[in-house]
Amino acid sequence: MSRSQAAFSPAPPAAADRLAYIVDDDRDMRMSLRMLLQEDAIDARPFLAAADFLDALPELRPGPVLLDVRMPEMDGIALLEAMIERGVRWPVIMMTGHAEVPLAVRAMKLGAIDFLEKPFPYEELSALMDRAFDLIEAQVRHGGDARERIERLTARERQILDAVARGLSNKEIASELDLSHRTIEMHRARMMRRLGARRISEAIALASGLDR
Amino acid sequence: MGIRCLLYVSESCLAWPDDAHEVDDIVTNARARNEQLGVTGALIYTRTHFAQVLEGETAAIDAVMTSIRADARHRNLCVVADEALATRHFPDWTMAYSGPSFYVDRQIRPLLTDATDPARRRRAGAVLLAFIREFAADSKRESG
Question: Hey, what CATH topology would domain A14-141 get?
Fold first, then answer.
């Protein structure tokens, strides 16, 4: 194909349409994942440290994040927590050398969609990425402003939302936060209004990135 | 009276995104009913499947299971384990996980078919039970 033809033909489904992120301190892992994902027309941006990814985060488009659990300084779980604090609920796939149940459970509770034990078969990753992109698309369709709405909450309301998402009752939240039951009810009602949620499940969904 | 522990898995008939409301109702009703009947345990929902552990006296478990089996919000209910229990593993009844995790779903999926050989099935059941317990314990740790 000549150069001019290329310029005038409709843009091919650009690799950049499917953007993903890799955060792993292991250079070989970053390189091989990047190459593997390229096969599926996914452009994966590599980051060698959690802090680098967090710095770049405000500028990034939503995309699945492949996140190594064990990293020096800030580890994968801490990065996942930092993303939640910033209201970023993109599909996160944790990767680890050895999967331990408590670690996997922690990651799932923080909203990670999967937990892969290295080395994993490429087919598994490929199928998983397709589903991750489906989730992003659904998030965008169903109120992509979740982040904005969550950000409107006060620190206290965020605390209560987190507790509610963990399945705690008002009574349990009251004792956990050392506040009266009535105060919790008041904060909870205000949190619902701010989120524009009619039911508590909608609030929880917003918080967990399900965006209903 | 002896205590029993029952673990089942089932397929969800709920459709995203309205499933959130339904799951809300399930949790509200289950919490009240289980507290009244002295049933402890935990429920897990992965958007495609449910898994639940129930602990309590035989009559209470039977009553809860009758109502659960009749619930049209799920189908293909498979009892994975049903055995006598010396002491309870769960202090109360909680919604231990609700989300889109494929990882959690993978722990449930193989138990939905009876085709798997009994030894593997038992092992997968034990793994799922350990998972649900860990999910419930993690919630307690966070709030503790």
Answer: Rossmann fold (3.40.50)
Q: How far is A11 from chain B (nearest CA, A)?
A: 33
Tens digit of each residue's pLDDT (9 = 90 or more) over B76-134: 999 999 999 999 999 999 999 998 899 999 999 989 887 778 888 888 899 899 999 99
Ranges in chain A, pLDDT < 50: 1-15, 210-212
Between A108, A138, A168, which is nearest B97 by CB?
A108
Are A212 and B20 inside 8 Å of each other by CB?
yes
Where in chain A is CATH 3.40.50.2300?
Answer: 14-141
Query: Which residues of chain A form CATH 1.10.10.10?
Result: 146-208
Q: Is the dihedral of CA A70, A72, A77, A83 positive or negative?
A: negative
- Structural domain containing residue B73: 3-143
Is 0.85 exceeded by the ipTM?
Answer: no
Residue B54 in 3-state DSSP?
A: strand
Q: How far is A134 from chain B (nearest CA, A)?
A: 11
What fold, for A146-208?
Arc Repressor Mutant, subunit A (1.10.10)
Q: Indicate whether this model's pTM tops 0.90.
A: no
